[in-house]
């Protein structure tokens, strides 16, 4: 029944990237006829390069370049044969050098992405389990997901959470052979580390624990022979560790390298490893350049290069310590991240720094949460101390200006990253605007509320008073909601923006695929609050429709929007919410540009359905006005069943009817995993029954006059909109009596009888509603999360059931 058009992750990424591209900070082209590494030309301007991943600058070393040119002269631009047949003449020397570097057998791959695709399916057995750190590189996650087809469970834990990892170990230790934890050595955005030594201690406690480390960002600039951060922490490579390094990035050439001390596993991977077997091998120039780099790594020179870089990194750290910039993680890696919070602040800051002659990278979703946008700065040996100092000075000058220009402040940035603000700021002035935030609709003027937000759904003044009575003072926490009524006025006291918020417990999988929710519901049998979060939402889980009035054309319309978003952020912090949701907007919403720049992701909701009853004096006239195809649907799929049931509309149910209605609604809610929410409190139906705003359309089988087969719970909003808010059905009789289709038809019939011009049929089941003349509109929500963990976890779970 109520299937959802699920949000397409790639479409969301496309929107975010397109926004950044339009701002001029992504998908740029370097110019110039040559490249030194110290500077880069962008948009016709020379800039100091603080965006490289070649931290030691070896890509510009003359020895690597000469070796590459000589290899092309001798062997051509490529060696077009699979390495399984024969390797080009330079491979053997490179493999020998890399084995000397690591002290263990190695496998060379075309790049790390293909390497992961080849190694992970070979190393992980069908009776193993994979646990992913949620910040492990996308290429590792993508390769791991291939094993879903072999029914290998894939779990995910929060970043560097050893407690969660141990929970997963205990979950699988009795049922699985090996438990693979996959993580980065150095994480590419914040430059922070995996807790290698603590993980090794954990593996002593749990011998089943194996590790797969992607250390491409830890390569060369640290460790013996430049073998990277993980090897530096390990000293020796245990047999339960597979380690990926890179021959590109800091190594200065191309390709990737796997080190493995387990001889049996090494032979298995080396002999046949998917893309390792069938993909083209490295070009002669790349092999030669990598060999020249390996020779440097095997000499004392590598430590001199590491020390030169360390001096620059230390200098940058020391310079940043003298500032109030939000450095997200201070450590000894050459990767630094300055938080900006909102994407539009990040765009502004990057453009300002580029305008001053400093090229830096933007950190943006999905690499980081949208509200954790920032500037990633990398330090290399190419950078001199004077330009490092100049960059710091430029950031100190432009950071507050970027905040001011995008109507935010440093405290909001620090809060977004869960950091302690370095200084207290004066409260921001919203000249010309006043803010009112009320906790009850009783504190809000009834006439004004209904003028701007009445006549739509179950959220006119009277409807909200009803909701407050239902979702307060209940025994279960999911049944207790907080409400906030927000009004932003101009200097004349006129509303520029009005809306209401609810704060409640949501299931994290509310919009996930049904199979994912079904799996999670099994966990909730023992832990009812598994994967649930407090959410600050525009509107509520009980309501649907245009929940906000916003006068965008007002001279202070944009300022009012910015103030409203700051209010939501404050509510999120004060109430401990994990997510902020604004809903239900049409695809071409006037809110779109504003919300994307403020760190909200747009996701598709179920379609909204409405029926226009104007000009329909009777149900017969209405049906005759449908298309010929829809009239056939009525004659074939609805009309033949109408004689099998008795339909009645009542404003008050008996005790027995009320009990049946509650059970039928519960059946629908538990069956509808496409929109998975917690149940509503039992008091809801009693309050409905007492309220003059609600009535009930019921279907009885003619041979069972005391048994309700289906019921529609309907609300009348200011005599303007008829809202069939919820449905209850006996699934055992669903097809026998065409219950759902009959209820839709009877609802339209009732709306015409009441002379109400519009029916708001709400979300889901749009296919069935369309066949009875409903107008379908795509609806979207905008979400902002404190981190990406839940989004990525649900993505990992898809396809595992």
From TrEMBL:
<dbReference type="InterPro" id="IPR050087">
    <property type="entry name" value="AON_synthase_class-II"/>
</dbReference>
<protein>
    <submittedName>
        <fullName>Aminotransferase class I/II-fold pyridoxal phosphate-dependent enzyme</fullName>
    </submittedName>
</protein>
<dbReference type="Pfam" id="PF00155">
    <property type="entry name" value="Aminotran_1_2"/>
</dbReference>
<dbReference type="GO" id="GO:0008483">
    <property type="term" value="F:transaminase activity"/>
</dbReference>
<dbReference type="GO" id="GO:0030170">
    <property type="term" value="F:pyridoxal phosphate binding"/>
</dbReference>
<dbReference type="InterPro" id="IPR015421">
    <property type="entry name" value="PyrdxlP-dep_Trfase_major"/>
</dbReference>
<dbReference type="InterPro" id="IPR016181">
    <property type="entry name" value="Acyl_CoA_acyltransferase"/>
</dbReference>
<dbReference type="InterPro" id="IPR015422">
    <property type="entry name" value="PyrdxlP-dep_Trfase_small"/>
</dbReference>
<dbReference type="InterPro" id="IPR004839">
    <property type="entry name" value="Aminotransferase_I/II_large"/>
</dbReference>
<feature type="domain" description="Aminotransferase class I/classII large">
    <location>
        <begin position="49"/>
        <end position="393"/>
    </location>
</feature>
<dbReference type="InterPro" id="IPR015424">
    <property type="entry name" value="PyrdxlP-dep_Trfase"/>
</dbReference>
<keyword id="KW-0032">Aminotransferase</keyword>
<keyword id="KW-0808">Transferase</keyword>
């Amino acid at each position: 029944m109520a299937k959802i058009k699920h949000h397409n992750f790639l479409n969301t990424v496309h929107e975010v990237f397109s926004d950044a591209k339009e701002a001029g900070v992504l998908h740029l082209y370097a110019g110039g006829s040559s490249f030194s590494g110290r500077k880069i030309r962008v948009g016709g301007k020379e800039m100091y390069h603080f965006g490289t991943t070649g931290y030691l600058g070896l890509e510009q070393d003359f020895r690597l370049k000469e070796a590459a040119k000589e290899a092309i002269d001798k062997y051509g631009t490529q060696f077009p044969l699979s390495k399984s047949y024969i390797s080009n003449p330079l491979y053997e020397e490179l493999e020998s050098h890399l084995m000397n570097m690591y002290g263990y057998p190695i496998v060379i791959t075309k790049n790390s992405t293909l390497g992961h695709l080849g190694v992970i399916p070979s190393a992980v057995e069908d009776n193993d389990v994979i646990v992913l750190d949620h910040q492990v590189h996308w290429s590792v996650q993508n390769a791991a997901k291939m094993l879903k087809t072999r029914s290998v469970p894939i779990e995910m834990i929060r970043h560097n959470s050893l407690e969660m990892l141990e929970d997963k170990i205990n979950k699988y230790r009795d049922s699985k052979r090996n438990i693979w934890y996959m993580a980065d050595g150095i994480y590419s955005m914040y430059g922070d580390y995996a807790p290698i030594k603590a993980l090794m201690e954990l593996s002593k406690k749990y011998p089943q624990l194996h590790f797969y480390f992607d250390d491409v960002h830890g390569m060369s600039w640290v460790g013996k022979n430049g073998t990277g951060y993980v090897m530096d922490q390990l000293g020796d490579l245990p047999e339960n560790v597979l380690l990926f390094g890179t021959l590109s990035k800091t190594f200065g050439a191309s390709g990737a390298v796997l080190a493995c001390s387990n001889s049996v596993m090494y032979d298995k991977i080396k002999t046949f490893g998917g893309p390792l077997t069938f993909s083209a091998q490295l070009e002669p120039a790349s092999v030669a350049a990598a060999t020249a780099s390996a020779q440097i790594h095997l000499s004392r020179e590598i430590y001199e290069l590491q020390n030169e870089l360390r001096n620059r990194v230390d200098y940058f750290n020391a310079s940043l310590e003298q500032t109030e910039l939000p450095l997200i993680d201070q450590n000894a890696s050459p990767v630094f991240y300055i938080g900006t919070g909102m994407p539009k602040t990040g765009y502004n800051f990057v453009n300002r720094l580029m305008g001053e002659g400093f090229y830096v990278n933007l950190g943006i979703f999905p690499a980081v949460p949208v509200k954790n946008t920032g500037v990633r700065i990398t330090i290399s040996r190419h950078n001199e101390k004077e330009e490092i100092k100049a960059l710091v000075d430029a950031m100190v000058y432009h950071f507050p200006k970027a905040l001011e220009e995008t109507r935010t402040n440093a405290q909001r940035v620090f809060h977004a990253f869960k950091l302690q603000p370095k200084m207290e700021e004066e409260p921001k002035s919203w000249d010309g605007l006043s803010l009112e935030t009320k906790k009850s609709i009783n504190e809000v003027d009834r006439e004004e509320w209904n003028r701007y937000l009445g006549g739509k759904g179950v959220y006119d003044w009277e409807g909200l008073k009803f909701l407050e009575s239902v979702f307060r003072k209940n025994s279960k926490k999911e049944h207790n909601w907080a409400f906030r009524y927000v009004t932003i006025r101009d200097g004349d006291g006129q509303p520029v923006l009005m809306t209401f918020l609810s704060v409640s417990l949501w299931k994290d999988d509310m919009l996930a695929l049904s199979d994912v929710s079904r799996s999670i519901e099994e966990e909730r049998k023992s832990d009812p609050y598994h994967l649930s979060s407090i959410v600050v939402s525009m509107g509520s889980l009980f309501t649907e429709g245009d929940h906000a009035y916003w006068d965008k054309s007002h001279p202070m319309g944009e300022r009012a929007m910015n103030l409203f978003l700051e209010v939501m952020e404050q509510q999120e912090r004060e109430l401990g919410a994990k997510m902020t949701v604004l809903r239900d907007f049409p695809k071409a919403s006037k809110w779109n540009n504003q919300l994307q720049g403020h760190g909200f992701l747009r996701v598709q909701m179920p379609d909204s359905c409405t029926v226009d009853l104007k000009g329909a004096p009777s149900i017969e006239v209405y049906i005759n006005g449908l298309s010929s195809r829809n009239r056939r649907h009525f004659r074939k799929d609805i009309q033949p069943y109408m004689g099998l049931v008795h339909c009645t509309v009542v404003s008050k149910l008996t005790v027995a009817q009320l009990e049946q209605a509650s059970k039928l609604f519960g059946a629908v809610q538990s069956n509808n995993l496409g929109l998975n929410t917690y149940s509503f409190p039992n008091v809801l139906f009693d309050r409905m029954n007492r309220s003059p705003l609600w009535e009930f359309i019921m279907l009885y089988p003619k041979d069972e006059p005391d048994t309700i087969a289906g019921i529609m719970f309907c609300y009348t909003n200011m005599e303007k909109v008829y809202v069939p808010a919820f449905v209850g059905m006996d699934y055992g009789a669903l097809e026998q009596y065409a219950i759902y289709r009959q209820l839709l038809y009877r609802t339209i019939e009732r709306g015409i009888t009441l002379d109400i011009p519009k029916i708001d049929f709400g979300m889901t089941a749009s296919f069935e509603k369309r066949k009875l003349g409903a107008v379908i509109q795509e609806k979207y929500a905008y979400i902002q999360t404190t981190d990406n963990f839940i989004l990525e976890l649900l993505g990992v779970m898809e396809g595992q059931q």
